[in-house]
Amino acid sequence: MRILLVEDDPMIAESAAESLREEGHDVQRVSDGRNAMAQLKVHGYDFVLLDLGLPGADGMTVLRTLRAAKNTTPVIILTARDALDDRLAGLDAGADDYVVKPFHMSEILARMRAVQRRRFGFEADGNLTNGAVTLIDAEKAAEAGGARIPLSRREYALMAALLARPGAILSRRALEERIYDAGEEPESNAVEYLIHSLRKKLGAQTIKNVRGLGWMVPKSGDRS
User: Which of 12, 36, 101, 109 could in theory staple to 6 by disulfide, Cβ–Cβ 3.0 to 4.6 A?
Assistant: First the structure.
């Protein structure tokens, strides 16, 4: 997953980012609220881990701005503020979970998985699915029509980005950010090529084009 980590304590940020990367996630770190809001305007993320006590603009301002813009990216607040009123304010403002420091990264990773299961189409074992296609993370493969189909690294990354939010339209730029590592230059028509390949492997209706906007996979039960 592509994760925005918003934390101004360099030791906490470095430790958390390292743990997330060891789990295979793509992590971008920022240390102030204004930069976080700027990044959220132009980049797509699968998750935001958000401190509250930030310079520039505090975490609650970041969260409220995100939700006011109808951005539904999952957010877990990471903070030293442990008062009940603070927890309630964060959840009411649109956070998906609230974790008080100090924390262990195994708990954060477990809470991220729980948020994804609640919000998106995950099976009990944590694999992404919309009912028609299931990604098998351990094998970097897909299951569709009763068959298990191996996928390339970029095919898997693109399909994971779409299946993380069934019914949501992802633009070319958003998909390129999922399939290329930081610093890599996107190849011309790479997204179209990967989608063509995935449709051949998984079925022509697996990925739908929304003209002028991008691509999506249908929600569970929606095959129109």
Answer: 36
- Write the CB contacts of 213 (distance below 8 Å, at least 6 apart in sequence): 169, 171
Indicate the residue type of 83. A
Q: Would you state the pLDDT for residue 117?
A: 67
* Residues 6 or more apart whose Cβ sits within 8 Å of residue 106: none
Q: At the topology level of CATH, where does 133-216 sit? A: Arc Repressor Mutant, subunit A (1.10.10)
- 90 near 77, Cβ under 8 Å? yes
Q: In terms of C-beta density within 10 A (0-12 exposed, 13-18 middle, 19 or more buried), how is residue 213 classed? A: exposed
Which residues on neighbouring strands pair with residue 86, listed in sequence order?
Answer: none
CATH topology for 2-119 is Rossmann fold (3.40.50)
pTM over 0.70: no
Distances (CA, A) of 16 to 20, 55, 82, 102, 113: 6, 19, 20, 12, 16
